[in-house]
Sequence to fold (288 residues):
Amino acid sequence: MATGDIVDEHLIENLFELRSGHMNAVVFASGSGTNFREAVLESRKPGSNYSIDLLITDKEHDKGEDQPIGAIQYGRRFEIPIITVDGFQYCGSWQEAKKTITGREEYERRADILNQKFYNMLTEYEREHDVVFDLAILAGYMRFFKGALLKRFYRRGVNVHPAKLYEFNAVGKRKYRGEKAVIDALDAGEKKTRSSIILIDEGNDEGPILVSGPWIEYTGNRPVTTGDAEQQQGEQKKASDWPALRFALREIANGNFGLHKRKFHHDGNPVVVYKGIEMPYQGYDMDG
Fold:
């Protein structure tokens, strides 16, 4: 792991203050719930210093399925309270909406209403159960996280992204963002892929990078098919997503991750600090 300068304590804004005691987290999920599962399992290891106290989902079932989505099944197994609101009923289909400018605008307007509802339900839960959520975890959550929720958890929430985020395109944007990040990377000739744990902000996969997970070699076909990319992403999920997420959550809860108050990268993201030491742009490198 490449490291930088030691940072004076007063220049670090910790993501969680260890002196606050125990960190409480809320998870947002839309699908299989495997990232949620890993977050819970890590929380129940000795010395984790955090707990998952609430699961929020935007649906109960996948289309055409009778069984609840995996995240809900895990929530019930772990005996974690669950709040579910039908995101499709509020927002409709993003795949359809994004085809037109007016469709996008209407979808985003409705997404703000959904986010406000989740925010209201979350704060009501906090009040009723005498808990304050210190961190939000997006665990395969497929709705826009904006408005009131974003304001509440701005750079106090983490997301798992299935690609490296420290390579840039010709206009200075992160190259492998969005839903097709894995196949985009493989199509560009990348020989290996890795996961990134990032903080939530207003951008699309543009927040500060806390952790870059272990590399996963690609040994599949060229040119790359959708099936090849899905297989790579599945292998990466087990060997890079989960270890990186578990590491990030454990270290946040133990007060080891923070943001530099005065140093910023070229894209405006603050420099990440780990155990009092400046990290490079890609954050803590698990293969460094």
